[in-house]
Amino acid sequence: MTLIDVEKLKVDHPLLNQLIALEEVCWFNPAVTCVSEALPYVGLDVQDIQDASDRLARFAPFLALAFPETAKTNGFIESELVDIPAMKQCLEAHYGTEIAGRLMLKKDSHLPISGSIKARGGIYEVLAHAEKLATEAGLLSVSDDYSQLYSDTFRDFFRQYSIAVGSTGNLGMSIGIMSAKLGFSVSVHMSADARAWKKQKLREHGVNVVEYEQDYGVAVEKGRKEAEKDPRCFFIDDENSRTLFLGYSVAGERLKKQFEAQGITVDDKHPLFVYLPCGVGGGPGGVAFGLKMAFGDHVHCIFAEPTHSPCMLLGVHTGLHDAISVQDIGLDNLTAADGLAVGRASGFVGRAMERMLDGYFTLSDQHMYRLLGQLAQTEGIELEPSALAGMPGPVHVSRDHDYAVRMRLDQQKMRNATHLVWATGGGMVPPEEMASYLAKSGVDIVS
Ligand SMILES: *Cc1c(COP(=O)(O)O)cnc(C)c1O
Predict the structure, then answer these.
(1) Do the beta carbons of residue 170 and residue 117 sit within 8 Å?
(2) What is the spatial distance between Cα 369 and Cα 367, in angstroms, rounded to a whole number?
(3) Is the CB of 117 under 6 A from ligand 1?
(4) Cβ atoms of residues 178 and 165 within 8 Å
(5) Is this prediction's pTM over 0.85?
(6) How many CB atoms lie within 10 A of CB 431?
(7) Sheet containing 208-211: order of strands
(8) Does residue 425 line the site of ligand 1, with CB under 6 A?
(9) 373 within ligand 1 shell (Cβ under 6 A)
(10) Closest atom, ligand 1, to C-alpha of 278
């Protein structure tokens, strides 16, 4: 491991002083460029997203059977897109900033099966692996009806194989529950910050939960080492997986259809701003890639991170990507935001996506809690703290004059804008836990 000269870095990148002081920051990357110039760096294209989309369609009949809660969407795992006008007013009043355009929420928090954005990538990767094993064994062909996977024959087949993953909670939930349902024996290696109720739920599904005292990075490393010993074990690598990334990316075309159905235009005169909470980067990176492929340069993606874990901002801003961690600059990587307590960003995602991402901002845990209370109060929607990380995004965009000028976002366009906050989790939080979140918000909730 190379030694990081923090003093020198601070001179070259003064923003680091603010990160180290745990100040909330916002940085719009001046190196952002158009899709056509940025795409070659991703190494994936629309055809890869189409393959993922087709694969999910093949599995839909299986999912509708195995998870009856997905039957009403015919086995497609998709979330609602809703307006949150009262929250918009609340933000404007609280920050004293007018937000031009419309504010919406993408409720991945309420995705079936695992109640978080991980129901996109995590589940997709398990399905892709299952399909590969079954087709290679001659038991399945892509033209078959995949509802047959919901059978003892296939469960007995998959039982010979295992799946392992390192997780702070939500990824483990998605991969654990889906793997167990197919019949795999599955181990989830969990970091110290993982919630007790998530471990409990996984154990109820027959998942082997291995607990560690250390953080996410350690859980991943231990999980990877365990899996290496067993050739029949597949390790899902959250940090570098293209498959996971593509599972998330299908959200782009899905959102496009939802906008069309609701009569919402996204084009040169109607920009779309999407605010995505970022942990290791695969989820927001994959979704942002899908959005760019669906809406081109008319969509602007902005990542949000906790002040204690700004790994992606740090990696992209310094250009060091996964060669630097938040611990290297003295931060503790401790946050109440599940899924966002990541010290070192994915090098793959940072390098692939940096030219397509407009900006990054951080916020404190207390800030997330307050927004959690305000959303519950104004809209009656309850999320977990991490899912609120994107919420200040429209305020940052509305305030930054230089950014608006550079991106040629005039007032007329901004009045036609849609701001979409990606709510990434919370749908399965037990009521007692939610009550304690609400209590921490400092907001009086009148019901
Ligand atoms: C995992 C997660 C994220 C971020 O996804 P990454 O792929 O780790 O960047 C955001 N919010 C929640 C609730 C998550 O579980």
Answers:
(1) yes
(2) 5
(3) yes
(4) no
(5) yes
(6) 8
(7) 208-211, 185-190, 162-167, 233-236
(8) yes
(9) no
(10) 9
Residue ranges of the chain assigned to CATH 3.40.50.1100: 6-114+245-441, 118-238
Per CATH, domain 118-238 is 1.20.1560.10: no
Query: What tens digit of pLDDT does each residue of 12-52 get?
Result: 999 999 999 999 999 999 999 999 999 999 999 999 999 99
382: closest CA among 337, 419, 427, 344?
A: 427
User: For ligand 1, atom 14, which residue shows the shortest CA distance?
Assistant: 339
Dist. CA 32 → ligand 1 center (Å): 23
Q: Does domain 6-114+245-441 have CATH number 3.30.470.20?
A: no
- Judge if the beta carbon of residue 118 lies within 6 A of ligand 1: yes
Query: Between helices 251-261 and 46-66, what is the axis angle to 10°?
Result: 80
Ligand 1, from 125, 215, 242, 338: best to mutate by most atoms within 8 Å of Cβ?
Answer: 338
Q: Which whole number is the average pLDDT over 325-344?
A: 94
Ligand 1 pocket test, pick from 191, 313, 424, 429 with the greatest ligand atom count within 8 Å of Cβ, gives 424
339 lines ligand 1 (CB under 6 A): yes
Q: Is the CB of 119 under 6 A from ligand 1?
A: no
Tokens (6 digits) for 399: 């305030």
**pLDDT for the residue numbered 2:** 62
Q: Give the model confidence (pLDDT) of 92-129 as tens digits.
A: 999 999 999 999 999 999 999 999 999 999 999 999 99
Q: How far apart are CA 423 and CA 131, in angstroms?
A: 30
What was the pLDDT predicted at 440?
97
Q: Rounded distance, CA 305 to CA 4, Å?
A: 22
Please state, in angstroms and rounded to a whole number, the distance separating the CA atoms of residues 311 and 369. Answer: 21
Q: How far apart are CA 76 and CA 61, in angstroms?
A: 9
Distance 425 CA to ligand 1 centre (A): 8
Q: How many CA atoms lie within 13 A of 370 on its CB side?
A: 10
Q: Is the pLDDT of residue 219 over 60?
A: yes
pLDDT at residue 445 in the model: 75
Would you say the CB of residue 284 lies under 6 angstroms from ligand 1? yes
Helices (H) and strands (E) in the chain, counts: 20, 11
Q: How far is the CA of 285 from the centre of ligand 1 (A)?
A: 10
Angle between helical axes of 282-295 and 242-249 (0-180°, round to 10): 50
Tell me the one-letter amino acid at 342.
V
Q: Ligand 1 atom closest to Cα of 121?
A: 7
Partner residues linked to 187 by β-bridges: 164, 208
Lowest mean pLDDT among 180-189, 233-242, 322-331, 431-440: 233-242
Per-residue pLDDT tens over the stretch 339-358: 899 999 999 999 999 999 99
